[in-house]
């Protein structure tokens, strides 16, 4: 098995050979301090030892760089962390992962790579992403081999330090801790198709037809712009997902998602809603998330939600299953709108490097039945595409803000009111707020205008993809 992982890392090492010295020199020049000189020295020493085949020594040097850059990442506000220190962290993570992979520690290598991807900045021509993709392939081969009895499975050695702070939802308070997932994968795999998991017991609200968001089939781009985007009017569009592999040829099932993303580390929100005091975030593998929070949700003491995560940036293979809706090409201020190259309403390839691909932020929202996103607004246009399961949404236009009791301080874009069970003694004006609602089904896409308040509760196991643009 070690040889197999060495193949994944060997090609990368060759590619890095030409670039790494220059890259570290550049970092040193930009950071320009005695501390950074020592850290860059450690990176160089790590690379030297790795080339000489001394993975143990190399690992010791990278640990120095990882620990120091980790401290820098945790000083002050996340927004103020310099991109160079994030590059140092990513470079150290890459070297550490190379060493781990050469020692046959694929799971550990993947975990380190994902931390580098999540917290670091892109370095060396997306080397961490490339390495992670090739490791996923080799791990898939390994697990097939282990099923046929030719090799044993690796024991996860989850020993990295817990992260101190990370900010995934832009409106969340800074400073919440991330802890490691303590649960190891001990159970035999239960493979269930997510499409069979439509909740039969869920509390499905009756939507008042008077207040229902209108539903239309693929309106032409100029109609979308005139009727919905410019007047900031929500609408549900059907037909957008018809050309998505995630909704057709490679329908997202738990098995499929596990195969593509299983060993990857992802941030998971733990707790009923992000406004609760007990709410926190944990890093865990995608497979563990499926096992403990999707399949065993009733047994889990808390609800887990993989929410507002740039999953498609982290795992480009999943990005191939979705398309950026053509509507995201339209800019409010540009007459006539810009039309995507496809121009047929079918959508653009996500991640094709096009200008649209760069401008649109694509987030994943994957969780069990009962996840709640409290009433809040975001500053951008949003298309929320429902791929799996149903979601109940309630919307309030910006002019209702005074009736919605926003929090003060960091969460001014979030309402204090529990929309489905409002405390009208505390929030009496809320009873006057006018809402629109919809029960979003798989295949439907909800347009949420900028600053439009939205509350979202999943009815079934659900996977949505949101596209934010301006
Ligand atoms: O689906 C959810 O839980 C929330 C989605 C959301 O808030 C968004 O797309 O901005």
Question: Would you kindly provide a written description of the structure presented here, covering whatever features stand out?
Answer:
By secondary structure, the protein is an alpha+beta fold. It folds into two domains: about 1-160, no CATH class; about 210-470, Jelly Rolls. It contains 13 helices and 16 strands. The strands form three sheets. It has a ten-stranded mixed β-sheet. Helix 8 links the parallel strand 2 and strand 3 (about 235-240). Helix 1 runs antiparallel to helix 7 (about 125-145) and helix 2 runs antiparallel to helix 5 (about 85-100). It is elongated, with a radius of gyration of 23 Å. Residues about 145-190 have low confidence and may be disordered. Keywords: Biological rhythms, Cell cycle, Chromatin regulator, Dioxygenase, Iron, Metal-binding, Nucleus, Oxidoreductase, Transcription, Transcription regulation. One of its GO terms (cellular component) is nucleus. One of its GO terms (biological process) is rhythmic process.
């Amino acid at each position: 098995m070690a040889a197999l992982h060495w193949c994944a890392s060997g090609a990368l090492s060759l590619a890095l050979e030409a670039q790494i010295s220059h890259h570290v020199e550049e970092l040193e020049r930009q950071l320009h301090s005695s501390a950074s000189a020592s850290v860059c020295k450690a990176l160089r020493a790590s690379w030297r030892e790795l080339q000489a085949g001394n993975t143990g020594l190399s690992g010791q040097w990278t640990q120095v760089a990882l620990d120091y850059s980790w401290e820098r990442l945790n000083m002050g506000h996340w927004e103020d962390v310099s991109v160079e220190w994030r590059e140092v962290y990513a470079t150290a993570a890459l070297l550490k992962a190379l060493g781990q992979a050469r020692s046959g520690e694929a799971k550990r290598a993947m975990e380190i790579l994902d931390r580098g991807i999540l917290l670091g900045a892109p370095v060396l021509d997306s080397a961490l992403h490339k390495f992670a993709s090739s490791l996923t392939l080799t791990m898939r081969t390994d697990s097939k081999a282990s099923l046929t009895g030719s090799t044993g499975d690796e024991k996860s050695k989850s020993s990295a330090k817990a992260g101190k702070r990370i900010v995934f939802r832009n409106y969340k308070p800074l400073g919440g801790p991330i802890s490691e997932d303590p649960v190891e994968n001990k159970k035999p795999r239960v493979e269930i198709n997510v499409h069979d998991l439509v909740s039969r017991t869920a509390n499905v609200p009756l939507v008042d037809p008077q207040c229902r968001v209108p539903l239309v089939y693929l309106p032409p781009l100029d109609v979308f712009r005139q009727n919905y985007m410019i007047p900031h009017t929500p609408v549900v569009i059907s037909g957008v997902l018809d050309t998505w592999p995630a909704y057709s040829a490679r329908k997202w099932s738990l098995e499929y998602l596990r195969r593509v993303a299983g060993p990857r580390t992802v941030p998971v929100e733990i707790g009923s809603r992000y406004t609760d005091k007990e709410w926190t975030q944990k890093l865990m593998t995608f497979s563990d998330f499926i096992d403990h929070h999707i399949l065993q949700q009733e047994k889990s003491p808390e609800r887990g939600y993989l929410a507002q995560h740039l999953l498609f940036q982290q795992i480009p293979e999943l990005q191939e299953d979705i398309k950026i809706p053509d509507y995201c090409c339209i800019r409010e201020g540009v007459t006539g709108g810009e039309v995507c190259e496809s121009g047929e309403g079918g959508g653009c390839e996500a991640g094709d490097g096009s200008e649209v691909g760069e401008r649109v932020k694509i987030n994943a929202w994957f969780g069990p039945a009962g996840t709640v996103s409290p009433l809040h607004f975001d500053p951008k246009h949003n298309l929320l595409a429902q791929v799996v399961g149903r979601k109940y949404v309630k919307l309030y236009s910006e002019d209702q803000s005074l009736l919605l009791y926003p929090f003060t301080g960091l969460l001014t874009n979030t309402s204090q009111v529990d929309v489905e069970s409002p405390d009208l003694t505390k929030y009496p004006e809320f009873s006057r707020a006018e809402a629109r609602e919809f029960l979003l089904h798989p295949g439907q896409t909800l347009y949420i205008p900028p600053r439009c308040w939205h509350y979202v509760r999943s009815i079934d196991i659900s996977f949505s993809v949101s596209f934010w643009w301006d």
